[in-house]
Amino acid sequence: MLLDEPLIFERGATGRIGWAVAEPPGGGQDGPALPPDLRRDDDLAGLPEVSELEVVRHFVRLSQWNYSAATTLYPLGSCTMKYNPVVNEALARLPGFATLHPLVPDRLAQGALELIAGLEAALAALSGLDAVCLQPAAGAQGELLGMLLVRAHHVARGDPRRRVLIPSSAHGTNPASAALCGYQVAEVAVDARGLLPAAAVAAAMDESVAALMVTNPNTLGLFEEEIEAAAAAVHARGGLVYMDGANFNALMGVARPGDMGVDVMQFNLHKTFSTPHGGGGPGAGPVAVRAPLAPYLPVPRLVRSDAGLAWSDDAPQSVGRMRSFYGNFGVLVRAFAYIARLGAVGLADVTRLAVLNANYVRARLQGAYHLPYDTPSLHECVFSDRHLQDSGVSTLDVAKRLLDYGFYAPTIYFPLVVKGALMIEPTETETKETLDAFVNALLAIADEARTDPALLRNAPHRARLARLDETRAARRPILRWQPR
Amino acid sequence: MSGYTPHTEGDIAAMLAAIGASSIDDLFAQVPAGLRPRATIDLPPGLTEPELRARFEALAARNAGGTGPAVFLGAGAYPHWVPTAVDQVLLRSEFLTAYTPYQPEVSQGTLQATFEFQTFAALLLGLEVANASMYDGASAAAEAVLMARRMLPDRHTVWLSRALHPHYRAVIRTYVRGLGDVVVREVPFAADGRTDLGALEGDLGPDALAVVLGQPNVFGVLEDVAAVAARTGAAGALIITATAEPLALAMVRPPGACGADIAVAEGQSFGLPVSYGGPGVGLFAARERDVRSMPGRIVGETVDAHGRRGFVLTLATREQHIRRERATSNICTNQGLCALAVTAYLSLLGRQGLRALATTNYRAAHAVATRLEAAGVARRFDGPFFNEFVVQAPIARWEALVRDGVVAGFPLARWYPELDDALVVCVTEMHGAADIDRLVRGLAAPAARAASG
Ligand SMILES: Cc1ncc(COP(=O)(O)O)c(C=O)c1O
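That is the input. Now the predicted structure with pyridoxal-5'-phosphate docked in place:
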């Protein structure tokens, strides 16, 4: 049973203290008081006054309203919701990492710098590229950085160029990141196989195109078979190839972007490298580049000398900074722990088994659900609701009904090239038994769609709340609690 | 074997049979054959859990965290006590291992907590609405400039206070780099360490888009936001404030109440360890009428089919997954769990605890500043401050102190060549009396040091 719980602002009583604060050392004579015009005069009205137990209970109750990857299969396509190893939480909390101030002299941070250097090297090895920057806070920030590097490269040659080619299957962050760099987006349609045809890239390519932004495997879970030819066509006209590496879980030990003709890419450490998604971050989006782009990477850069590792701001061509300090360091610790724990063989197994799991789900669901592209899948598979339409149910209804069966829903209505998409990414950490239960649930739902469509349309029935009114939320926005 | 992958040989055989493939290798037939041999992973073999722990403990031991030197550093990352209960909340797997709450019916925990986070951010910053978080304070400041550009599309010049943290200034410059239509200029600071109002007034022309200043600024000095806002507003430009130490706002008039149009902050002080600079979390607040120009995710209240209160992601038509190249921002994954830390922290400290903690910080820092002054170490700027201030002391003394296990602040010359021998020193509730004595003794002028024995 799930218990009710008000907003934290609706709990407590005036005068209750949840946290006693020590007096400053040495008695703490008052300094000169703040000038009155600088002083806060609302007495912090509205902030809660609750006990420690009330706070703990509040958040424990809220937590119980969530499905999570630790509670159930969370087959959210494109998000790689794999097991987040608990040992990594302990390692990131070691005081030598957690309480290390980012501005201590470098010689007092050699362990952290070794870790950063080690992770940079590991990502370079996996990508087949030459230099890595760990600064970006998430995949989209990595994309932005990557496109700024592309721009810097072209500016150095006298013309930033105007356009970026992006396949119609791309994630929304790709066009948004390209636009933030001042580029116009030219969409290239995927073909009947769900793939980006090299010929279409060549046809769209001219000297106004700064880059091709391609996701590989793409958001349909398909390896871009013609990527080498597409990259060659881009390079032939002086363009660069950016790869969205969100789907790198399908590539470890299989193919290196550097060998495919990719010049710059981002990793999503919160996907491939197991760092927890945290209800929406923090993540990390490191960027890897070929050597000619390295001079443009953000500052500071890590350099090694006889005295050890040190940060250097000496990079006159750098695009600058993406954020303060060096990146989401705590996330980097977890990702490096994952790589160190698995090693070369373990990482290759991750990819092999992720692809096996996705293909197993695909094979078992094919028939009951419409598969819009039958090109062989890698780590995820995308179905549509076409077979269900006669029953008047949609992808949204299937997703909501899955919640009743105790599973989180796949990614829905993405990629946009599939109408009513259901995008399933089981990841390598799920057992065959779990996948069977999940597939059986989806098969049962396909039956229910025919026999009792209302059951789907009114789902979920077993969650704490029934379907929520999203239209109302957008029409009359209530975005915070208001003090009475 | 890690135990992270569960497949038995029997599983693999049964699954391949169901797929109709004869080996896992067959599943990669789409990958051009030339790529595969080159992709053999060149990394060391995996470690057992005890080996992994030993390796990471050895790395951690080579850092100055934990019980290492006494560190009086702030300058963008602030050491505060993280209550055990806060970290315990973060370790709840249901929060830790969920993702962006796309299915609200089974994500109400994340959604309600985020709604609470937005409320805290708006209350503290003194504005009407806040989003669900940005990457950090610096990128939030950059997103604020981009939002200003959407609000005033005919203006192009952004004025950054030189007393704004240099990382924030650098990130803003990076974010507008590719757009080509934003001109970034800087406003000098005055002798009191505040943004030079006189200089600002002369410069704000009809093209002025926004003025961005720190509150407190990188020198720890509290700006007169209201005065800047008055002048900026008169020029028809927006005022954006960026707060790296939000604990100050428990006692300092919030930016919104001073007229700020957009206020951002770094939330790390509220329940997150400094963690070598990340992850933290960006707070982002603005006026309700401008909400449709805001970047990032926003949670709103609604009802379910039975009329019960619930929360959903809302106003998504601003966002990349719908609007693509016309989105207000490219942000997707934000800093959700860090926003949860802030929410749990502010809930726990509450109204009284937060005020008390701010007072403690204020007094502790002022006490140290007073003692340093008495020891012949003058403050560089005489503007009001919260828990951080700049002193004038020869760099040789700072270096000697580092060798003795005290990091006596951050030497500003690295960021401001004109500020030779200036240290920005941060004192919080984390600094004990013995360490403070070492700091004062070590920085003291030799004469004063001799006098104090
Ligand atoms: C294919 C793809 N590209 C880019 C992104 C953006 O990554 P992030 O959310 O870390 O910014 C995502 C995930 O959300 C994705 O699935």
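DSSP finds 14 helices and 14 strands in chain B.
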